[in-house]
């Protein structure tokens, strides 16, 4: 029995190859995402381990890397106290910043697209466990004001050599720094994953970031040999003043790398989602391929049954093929996954996340996952056809034309209909109220709809095919009729093939509806709420020095400048964001709809809240809210309730209140209003003169600001399209596969058609039209579902800023046309193959 | 009555394979098929009957020699012209699997016309349908028809386009005697009433009895001919033919 399986497998290798391809892609995504995640993990863990001492002393309640690192500090006296603790070899105060960028020789910022611009004060204490700390690679360390060092990779990207005068922009008190590059220094790991590193001497760093106060961001403690981190931590803890805490270097490194990994976890989530899509779509291909192969082999299988093979043996022989296909697919997929991870690495390097220093991490987990996923999916997908195969009656071997037993299409469609209803119910339930575990229900609802639609598609698809068929018959005559009939002869096969495209297209359309809605929402939001003329903001969304805003006030023709700030905070114990504004100028640049209280009373430690927050959290005028920043809690009073807009955080205080609570001394946006009658060009030129020397800060008018806010949406969409494109590629392969198999299956019929006078061209057209039917069926169903999903997604995110619904009809039509083109393309090879068949030999085939 | 030639072969040779494996299926065959007559081709299995039909019907190309349909030499025509020729001037009936399973009987019958984009002549169509007796079955799919009915649909298809010649390769080979009688009577009728030219391969002396002329093939050559055959005569001749074979080999 096994031998027979092998032989039939080998005989059908080309047909199987195509269906394997889907598995290959799915597995590649799984393996690729696991390999890439592991690589990221290792890169960050090794980097972070090199950037901390054995023990770190820091402001209480503050984790590494937090945005307000610059306001909460450790006094210099702590350094001396810690130095005297037994077991401490060295204690060095660190000054560090995460928004200090190097301006390259070409005047452009180095890196910056998401990766931090790190600045640290120099010391040469070893890192945890005696590994080397910050090491000078060339030249020497900076010793006084006017000297600077940077990491070799950044120097190379900026095109600077030791001895050059270099420019650096910071978000500290001094927005711009000019200094001589005296050396190149880096941490032991070398790579900084795209971040840039600038090194200053401690005094200059304190001058730049803390206005010369003798305080530090944290204290780096090196243990004497033989003292372990935990014990040293305990010892150091005993001498610390209140407001400071101590953690082991290992913990600090873990926290830092966990934070980064959390921030990057969307990458692997993304990849795994696409792996899921590829595998679901791929499993349709497998079901289809095996169904067709089993149908074609029904005679052979019946013969096996007639010769005494049991049902189970027949099932097993088909499953054996599936597993073998899965094995091959998984192996190739694993290899491709590795290549994919390399590709992602290269792609992220483009976005500034440079991992070139870290080799890919080939974990056993990735290998096991690849094989388990590949074989399981193939096996499961082949199970149904295999079971059907075993139902072939032995007597079928003796008959001329064998029809495989087909389960009733209607019963499935009924089940599918119920699933769709349940899914839609879940979606409506989520959308019509505040529900717990929204995401979960949303996901379940969407999944229900799509799986139900797949089950229903043979029935639902019929009218669509009929419709297309009508057009065909009108336009293409007999060839059109033949194509239509061929598509209808096996509705399940047509529908299953179309389903692959349907899923891919549904997702594409969903994302484009959502993207268009998000874009529209941004535009509407800015048009409605921003009444100022210009926005000054960081080019990468990074905060900038408040001196920029101060200078903007002085530009002639400027009537009002409103600075805004925001940061992560805890409000009444919930982790969320807090905003800060200048109340007076704010009303001149933005429309704020006050519902209760008054913004006039917004002074010092007071806040206004949105009506949504008021409802959710029960805030009322006069209530106290407790704002916790960097471990320190400040109570503030609610003085106004305003109408919620996506531009407003739940709770906003004054700039003074923000600074008093410990918010960082950095601005995020400065909104500028022109005085009536002031010359537009002059005001703008005046503002641009301020930002000219600081490439991280730019002036934009309303349109430019809107365009800038839209850009991340567009980038995200492009990435999603690229990945969903793969799902569509799989779907195309599915169509190729189904067509190729059905051409083989219909060899005799094709011979007959040719014998009665169908020309090669007509034959090719027939196959092409069939292909277009499948593609259009997938497209129509996919677009309908996709628009629905897009609306659901937009509605579910309307509270999060996507308030407007926009359906990009032009783009959707383009997708439908592309789907038709895909159909034509997919038919190319099967059509050629069909046209090449030798008439006589085709007729003689059995 | 002057007999016009509908198709003829001149020095037709067809060989398969190369070197050792070379099989000569037709060996210098020259034969004329007269218009408006019902010709049978007979001979032992492997004697080249099907090959001859295929060469005549533009389904296969000769290794040597020429085949004419009317005045046109098939060897000079490209694939496109040959396809058109098959579609417009030739009808073919195979032993089995003659119909496209997705199309109804009527659609199958009209298929060559539909492919050509020609309108069927309703009168002629009705005539053909009534002759084959399929009026009640027109909307049925092939799998809803008996073997005999399917063959009759195939014959109707061959007739529908009023081709110059209909070639039928053992059209009754799979049928019981009643069904096969129906088909043969129908073919005979088409020749007599409609003036159709039909060439049929058969092994069955009874079937051959319906024809006007029999061409006997053996080992790829025309070995004999018989005019106005009856089944008894044919039976006799076949016995002779079989007896002669070993000595010739
Ligand atoms: N494609 C082919 N390749 C090689 N040899 C072939 C091919 N087709 C036919 N032949 C050979 O040519 C010879 C004639 O075959 P043909 O099919 O014409 O015989 P036939 O008279 O129709 O026989 P039957 O009565 O069994 O149908 C046979 O010896 C056959 O083996
Ligand atoms: Mg034959």
From TrEMBL, chain A:
Keyword field contains Transcription: no
Positions of the MacB-like periplasmic core domain: 17-238, 494-689
Major localisation: membrane
Domain of life from the UniProt record: Bacteria
Subcellular location per the Swiss-Prot or TrEMBL entry: Cell membrane
UniProt-listed Pfam families: FtsX (PF02687), MacB_PCD (PF12704)
Annotated family: Belongs to the ABC-4 integral membrane protein family.
Bilayer topology: Multi-pass membrane protein
ABC3 transporter permease C-terminal domain residues: 273-393, 723-838
Record flagged with keyword Glycosyltransferase: no
Name of the protein in its database record: FtsX-like permease family protein
InterPro entries in the cross-refs: ABC3_permease_C (IPR003838), MacB_PCD (IPR025857), Macrolide_Exporter_MacB (IPR050250)
Source organism of the structure: Luteipulveratus flavus
Bilayer-spanning residue ranges: 270-295, 318-342, 362-384, 413-432, 444-465, 495-516, 719-744, 769-792, 812-831
Record key words, sorted: Cell membrane, Membrane, Transmembrane, Transmembrane helix
Automatic annotation (TrEMBL), chain B:
The organism's place on the tree of life at top rank: Bacteria
InterPro entries reported for this sequence: AAA+_ATPase, ABC_transporter-like_ATP-bd, ABC_transpr_LolD-like, MacB-like_ATP-bd, P-loop_NTPase
GO molecular function, one term: ATP binding
The entry's keywords: ATP-binding, Nucleotide-binding, Transport
PROSITE patterns per UniProt: ABC_TRANSPORTER_2 (PS50893)
ABC transporter domain ranges (all copies): 7-244
CDD domains hit by this protein: ABC_MJ0796_LolCDE_FtsE
Protein name per Swiss-Prot or TrEMBL: ABC transporter ATP-binding protein
Originating organism: Luteipulveratus flavus
């Amino acid at each position: 029995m096994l031998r027979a399986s092998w032989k039939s497998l080998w005989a059908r290798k080309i047909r199987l190859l195509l269906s394997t391809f889907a598995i290959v892609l799915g597995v590649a995504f799984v393996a690729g995402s696991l390999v890439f995640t592991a690589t990221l993990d290792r890169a960050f863990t090794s980097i972070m381990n090199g950037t901390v001492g054995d023990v770190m002393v820091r402001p209480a309640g503050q984790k590494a890397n937090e945005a307000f690192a610059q306001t909460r500090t450790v006094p210099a006296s702590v350094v001396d106290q810690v130095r005297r603790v037994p077991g401490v070899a060295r204690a060095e105060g660190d000054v560090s910043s995460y928004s200090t960028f190097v301006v390259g020789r070409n005047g452009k910022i180095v890196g910056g697209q998401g990766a931090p611009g790190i600045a640290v004060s120099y010391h040469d204490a070893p890192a945890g466990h005696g590994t080397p700390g910050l090491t000078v690679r060339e030249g020497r360390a900076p010793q006084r004001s006017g000297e600077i060092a940077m990491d070799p990779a950044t120097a190379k990207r900026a095109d600077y050599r030791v001895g050059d005068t270099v420019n650096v922009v910071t978000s500290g008190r001094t927005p711009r720094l000019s200094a001589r590059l005296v050396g190149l220094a880096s941490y032991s790991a070398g790579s900084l994953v795209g971040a840039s590193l600038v090194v200053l001497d401690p005094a200059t760093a304190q001058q730049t970031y803390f206005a010369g106060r003798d305080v530090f961001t944290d204290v780096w403690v090196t243990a004497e040999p033989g003292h372990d981190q935990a014990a040293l931590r305990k010892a150091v803890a005993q001498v610390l003043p209140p407001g400071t805490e101590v953690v082991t270097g290992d913990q600090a490194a873990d926290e830092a790398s966990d934070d980064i990994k959390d921030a990057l976890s969307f990458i692997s989530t993304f990849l795994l989602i696409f792996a899921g899509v590829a595998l679901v779509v791929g499993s349709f291909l497998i079901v289809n391929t095996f169904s067709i192969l089993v149908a074609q082999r029904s005679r052979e299988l019946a013969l096996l049954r007639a010769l005494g093979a049991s049902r189970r043996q027949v099932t097993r022989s088909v499953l054996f093929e599936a597993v073998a296909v899965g094995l091959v697919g998984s192996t190739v997929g694993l290899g491709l996954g590795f290549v994919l991870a390399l590709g992602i690495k290269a792609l992220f390097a483009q976005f500034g996340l440079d991992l070139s220093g870290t080799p890919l991490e080939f974990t056993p987990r990735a290998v096991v996952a690849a094989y388990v996923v590949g074989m399981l999916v193939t096996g499961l997908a082949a199970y149904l056809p295999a079971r059907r195969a075993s139902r072939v009656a032995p007597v079928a071997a003796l008959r001329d034309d064998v029809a495989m037993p087909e389960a009733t299409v209607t019963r499935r469609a009924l089940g599918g209909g119920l699933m769709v209803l349940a899914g839609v119910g879940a979606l409506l339930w989520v959308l019509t109220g505040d529900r717990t575990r929204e995401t979960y229900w949303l996901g379940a609802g969407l999944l229900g709809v799509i799986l139900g639609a797949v089950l229903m598609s043979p029935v639902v698809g019929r009218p669509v095919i009929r419709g297309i068929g009508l057009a065909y018959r009108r336009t293409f005559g007999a060839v059109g009729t033949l194509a239509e009939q061929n598509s209808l002869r096996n509705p399940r096969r047509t529908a299953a093939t179309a389903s692959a495209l349907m899923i891919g297209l549904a997702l594409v359309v969903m994302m484009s509806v959502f993207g268009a809605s998000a874009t529209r929402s941004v535009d509407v939001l800015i048009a409605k709420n921003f009444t100022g003329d210009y926005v000054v903001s960081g080019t990468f969304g990074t905060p900038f020095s408040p001196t920029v805003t101060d200078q903007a006030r002085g530009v002639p023709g400027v009537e009002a400048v409103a600075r805004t700030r925001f940061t992560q905070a805890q409000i009444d114990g919930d982790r969320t964001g807090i905003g800060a504004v200048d109340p007076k100028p704010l009303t001149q640049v933005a429309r704020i709809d006050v519902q209760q209280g008054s913004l006039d009373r917004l002074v010092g430690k007071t806040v206004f809240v949105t009506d949504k927050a008021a409802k959710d959290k029960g805030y009322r005028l006069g209530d106290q809210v407790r704002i916790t920043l960097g471990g320190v809690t400040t109570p503030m009073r609610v003085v106004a309730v305003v109408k919620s807009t996506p531009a407003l955080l739940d709770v906003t205080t004054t700039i003074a209140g923000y600074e008093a609570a410990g918010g960082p001394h950095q601005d995020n946006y400065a909104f500028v209003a022109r005085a009536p009658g002031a010359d537009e060009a002059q005001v703008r030129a005046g503002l641009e003169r301020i930002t000219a020397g600081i490439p991280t800060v730019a002036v934009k008018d309303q349109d430019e600001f809107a365009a800038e806010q839209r850009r991340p949406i567009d980038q995200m969409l492009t990435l999603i399209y690229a990945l969903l494109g793969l799902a569509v590629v799989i779907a195309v392969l599915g169509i190729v596969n189904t067509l190729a198999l059905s051409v083989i299956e219909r060899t005799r019929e094709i011979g007959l058609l040719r014998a009665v006078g169908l020309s090669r061209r007509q034959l090719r057209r027939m196959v092409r039209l069939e292909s277009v039917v499948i593609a259009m069926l997938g497209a129509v169903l996919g677009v309908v579902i996709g628009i629905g999903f897009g609306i659901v997604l937009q509605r579910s995110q309307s509270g999060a800023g996507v308030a407007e619904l926009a359906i990009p009809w032009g783009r959707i039509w383009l997708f439908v046309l592309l789907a038709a083109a895909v159909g034509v393309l997919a038919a190319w090879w099967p059509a050629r193959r069909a046209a090449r068949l030798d008439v006589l030999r085709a007729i003689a085939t059995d | 009555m002057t007999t016009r030639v509908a198709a003829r072969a001149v020095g037709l040779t067809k060989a398969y394979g190369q070197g050792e494996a070379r099989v000569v299926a037709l060996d210098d065959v020259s034969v004329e098929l007269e218009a408006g007559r019902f010709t049978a081709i007979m001979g032992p299995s492997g004697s080249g009957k099907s090959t001859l039909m295929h060469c005549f019907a533009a389904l296969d190309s000769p290794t040597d020699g020429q085949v004419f349909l009317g005045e046109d030499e098939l060897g000079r025509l490209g694939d496109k012209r040959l396809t058109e020729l098959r579609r417009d001037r030739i009808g073919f009936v195979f032993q089995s699997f003659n119909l496209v399973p997705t199309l109804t009987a009527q659609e199958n019958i009209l298929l060559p016309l539909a492919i050509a984009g020609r309108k069927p002549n309703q009168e002629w169509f009705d005539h053909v349908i009534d002759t084959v007796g399929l009026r009640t079955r027109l909307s049925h799919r092939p799998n809803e028809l008996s073997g005999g009915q399917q063959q009759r649909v195939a014959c109707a298809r061959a007739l529908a386009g009023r081709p110059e010649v209909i070639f039928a390769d053992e059209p009754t080979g799979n049928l019981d005697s009643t069904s096969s009688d129906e088909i043969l009577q129908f073919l005979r009728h088409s020749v007599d009433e409609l003036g159709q030219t039909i060439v049929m391969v058969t092994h069955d002396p009874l079937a051959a009895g319906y024809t006007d002329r029999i061409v006997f093939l053996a080992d790829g050559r025309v070995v004999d001919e018989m005019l106005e055959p009856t089944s008894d005569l044919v039976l006799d001749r076949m016995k002779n033919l079989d007896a002669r074979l070993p000595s010739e080999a």
